[in-house]
Amino acid sequence: MRKIIFILIVLFFYKSIAQNKQVLFGFAELPQTLLLNPASETNYKFHVGVPLLSGFSTEIGSSSAVLSDLFGVDNRTVNQKVTSLLNSLSPRDFLKLNTQIEILSGGFRYDSKNYFSFGFYNEIDAIGYYPKDFLTLFNEGNDAYLNRSFSASQIIYKLDVIGVLHAGITRKINDKLTVGGRFKIYSSALNIETNNNSGTFTTTQGTNNLYTHYFNDVDINLKTSGLVDSNTEQYIENAGTFIGNTFLGGNLGIGLDVGLTYKITDQLEFSGSIIDFGFINHKKNVKNTKTKGNFIFEGVDFTFDPNNNGNYWEQIDERFKQELPTTEDNESYISWRPTKINAALKYSFGEKRSKYCYDNTYKDFYTDAIGVQLFNVFRPLSPQLALTTFYQKSISKKIHAKFTYTIDDFSYSNIGAGLSMQFGKINLYGMFDNILAYRNLATANSVSLQLGVNLIFN
Amino acid sequence: MKSLKKISFLLSFFMIVSCSDKLDFNQINNYIHKPVLTSALTYFKVVPFQFFDSNGVQQFEIRDVTRFEGFENTYIRENVVKINFNAEIKNEFNRDVTIQAEFLSENDGLLYSFTPIQVQENDLNFTYLEEIDVTTNQSVLNTAKVRIIASIENTGTPMNPNDTSEFEFKSSITFFIESEL
After folding, report:
1. I need a surface site. Which of A108, A365, A382, B178 has the fewest CB within 10 A?
2. Could you tell me if the ipTM is greater than 0.90?
């Protein structure tokens, strides 16, 4: 258990700036851009993602600490490094992890106005804020912290392991406006979350005894689904069960993506989307643990009453259970998906070329584009914003590149790059975010990548 | 195609030149988890009246005992290396008081006892610290009960049961933990 807690502590230092796929957004008409904006413009007849390979994305990063802070070779002991790290982090620091693997994906053009796309992907999405008070108490104990209130409100985390079955439509309204929508069915294999906790633990100089310990206004609610089998009351440990539950076997939910692309002029384009506006209703294999109340402990008050028979401890234990009870239940609950908002303004310029489209026509396009993108994801403590500027270059009709510079909570020097290449029907794409970090991964705050292979038919 | 070559070169360059400072992940095996946990323990306040039995006969010793389940926690039991017992005592009585603190097993067997704490009459600021090295006193980990015995000095003059002077005792216990991951 202590190892798990320690690993979690370490993981808190390696946070992922997840889900902001700023290089992919609006890039090269890739099928995967439809998952970021269902109104992305496409000009092919149909596409098929190579199963398990069409879309893989993962992002790992850290807002403040880096690997070398803990594992670097220097004159400090590992205990000194851990203490130094814990002191340097704040409760607003967080761990985020998001990995998506497309299992199946495809799409086809219904007519000149409508393109349908669909697929199934697995996603692991996790966020955990750094509970500084809890970790300080765990690491150092309460002895050196008289009068300090250790707060339970810093305990905020959420982990989802889900499968997403989706189908969407991209509809060209006119030459200027394209709109899109995608309906999603979420199947949650695992959810662990806690939020809106409150309460403090404080040790003070006592009046009746040397110390008094206070548990004040404690209200902690830990929710899980898919972790404990309701019938056997045993932890579900079979990986196959989790994987199986991601395909409509787990707790179900629904969600919606919507988006639009609007050509303000021939060269100026606005696009925006809202992704994962939805929820999951957890009612299978639910196990919730709640602790609520107040408790004051001053020690054992000896009365020297011969009739007491030394029952002080039992009396305190009983009072603790009555005043600060911990209960378990199987009540269903709703978990909202982390909704994302994307917006982009793109100005195209450069050489004007033509490309061959699905309907045997040719479409003009500019070889270069610059623009700005705004990304926001709603998270438990606060929304997380990122602002990106980008330069996009079409090297040929089949080869496109994009460079990004992003400012977010973690970095002011995040440069990303991506390349999409079409060889016949085969499309390959790869994107790397924060490429400067590759100079020294030990001191990297974040690295991320997205890779995939599609078959695209014009 | 020149641009493509450049871009491909740059991407490849970043991948190839990506490197890392020397890292030693085995350091984590040297990590010692060393929290220091402090808790209030026993306390009491007695007046002369409590040193008389129901027949009004002066008693020279009173005692009380409580269960103590601190060592039933396996984490503390397996990793505590030192225990500090702190006491602060105020003796308003006009005679010395001796406090004996004893750690007992489930069957009331004596596992550890402090050197008797002798508090002079009218000493209002007596402090006491007992450090228990667990490695040389392993039996203390079997403690299931704590007993306190308060003895008053027999001066030859009985106490006045209506006297309002007090004898006050406060204590805490501190566990020094050292645990590997």
Report:
1. A382
2. no
Give whole-number Cα distances, A332 to A190, A223, B82, B123, in Å.
Answer: 14, 9, 46, 62
At a CB cut-off of 8 Å and minimum separation 6, what does A332 contact?
A: A281, A282, A283, A286
Name the CA dihedral angle for A286, A287, A292, A298, rounded to a multiple of 10 degrees: -170
- Total domains, chain A: 1
Whether CATH 2.60.120 fits B33-180 = yes
**Quick one: which of A5, A7, A13, A8 has its CA closest to A86?**
A13
Per-residue pLDDT tens over the stretch A161-209: 999 999 999 999 998 999 999 999 999 999 999 999 999 999 999 999 9
**Full domain range(s) for residue A393:** 2-457
Section A94-113 average pLDDT: 88
Q: Could you tell me if A216 lies within 8 Å of chain B, comparing CB atoms?
A: no
Strands (E), chain B: 32-33, 36-46, 61-67, 80-91, 97-104, 110-113, 117-119, 126-133, 145-152, 167-177, 179-180
Q: For residue A277, give the nearest of A189, A163, A182, A161 by alpha carbon.
A: A182
Residues of B (7-66) whose Cβ lies below 8 Å from A: 7-8, 10-11, 14-15, 17-25, 27-28, 30-46, 50, 62-66
Q: Mean pLDDT score of chain A, rounded to an integer?
A: 86
Show the 3-state SS of B135-146: HHCHHHHHCCEE
Largest CA distance in chain A: 101
Q: How many angstroms separate the CA of residue B36 from the nearest CA in chain A? A: 5
| Burial annotation B30-39 (CB, 10 A radius, 16+ → b, else e) | ebebbbbbbb
User: What's the CA gap between A71 and A75, in Å, rounded?
Assistant: 12
**What does the domain layout of chain B look like in residue ranges?**
33-180
Distance of CA B93 to the CA centre of its chain: 27
Geometric angle at alpha carbon A261, from A259 and A266, rounded to 5°? 175
Gap between the Cα atoms of A436 and A405, Å rounded: 11
> For the segment B83-141, what is each residue's pLDDT rounded down to a tens digit?
999 999 999 999 999 999 999 999 999 999 988 999 999 999 999 999 999 999 999 99
Q: E strands, A226-284, where?
A: 251-263, 268-282
Contact B31 A393 (CB under 8 A): no
Q: What is the CATH number of the domain that holds A225?
A: 2.40.160
